[in-house]
Design a protein that fits this description.
The chain is α+β, with helices and mostly antiparallel strands. It folds into two domains: 4-21 and 72-199, Holliday junction resolvase RusA (60s Ribosomal Protein L30, Chain: A), CATH 3.30.1330; 25-45 and 52-68, no CATH class. The protein is 26% helix and 17% strand. The protein has five helices and four strands; from the N terminus they run αβααβαββα. A four-stranded mixed beta sheet has the order 1-4-2-3, covered by helices on one side. Strand 2 (120-129), helix 4 (137-154) and strand 3 form a beta-alpha-beta unit. Helix 3 crosses helix 4 (137-154). The longest helix has 21 residues, at 90-110. It is elongated and about 70 Å long. The relative contact order is 0.21.
Length: 203
């Protein structure tokens, strides 16, 4: 990942953070009949085979819980909210998505050398997809940008995620077969820089 947009303004070396999927989660089969969850429509019985889905915790491939960081790479598309995928209404799906990715970034930031108590950060990102599907940048940017800002504040790296303190610039896309990842370059600033209106004397 290159500094790109912020190369001439950030000054300090960036801190790199990566969320990379190590395992594509696969639900364990029904404990009672051994068939996959998808064979039980809404968990219902399969006549002559099973009285109802008996879920098993963990991933069939790696054994870890579905919420484990190993199962996350590229973020979900914001379209998941409008399409109704997931449980509950659109607002609940969106809140759960944001909370999940805030937790992911909290853990990734805690493992990084990013110092706390910064005046400002500038961020660039790259999302790596395993295939060349058609994707709208905004549907992925909104998930990362909001969750990362909240994680920076809750983790004590920033006092607030308002524009003068937190700015998310370039977001690139790469395709690597078999790879799903979110890569961030975070430029730490010890002083809050003026926003464009301030520089021009308009604010």
């Amino acid at each position: 990942m290159t500094a790109g947009l912020f190369e001439s303004t950030a000054g300090p070396e960036p801190v790199y953070v990566e969320v990379r999927r190590d395992c594509h989660f696969k639900a364990k089969p029904c404990r009672a009949c051994g068939r996959p969850e998808s064979a039980h429509q809404r968990g219902r019985a399969i006549e002559g085979v099973c009285d109802g889905l008996q879920r098993q915790r963990g991933c069939e491939r790696c054994g870890r819980n579905k919420s484990d960081l190993a199962h996350f790479g590229a973020p979900p598309s914001y379209n998941a909210i409008g399409s109704g995928r997931g449980t509950g209404g659109a607002a609940m799906v969106g809140a759960n998505m944001k909370q999940t990715w805030e937790r992911i970034f909290q853990e990734a930031l805690a493992a990084s050398p990013l110092p706390k108590g910064l005046a400002r950060v500038l961020v660039e990102g790259t999302i790596v997809f395993p295939d060349r599907g058609r994707r709208d940048q905004g549907n992925f940017r909104v998930v990362i940008e909001k969750a990362l800002g909240d994680a920076l504040v809750s983790g004590g790296y920033l006092e607030d995620d308002r524009w003068e303190m937190y700015e998310f610039g370039q977001l690139s896309m790469e395709v690597e077969p078999g790879v799903s990842a979110t890569r961030l370059a975070i430029f730490p600033m010890t002083e809050r820089g003026p926003i464009k209106g301030e520089q021009m004397g308009l604010v």
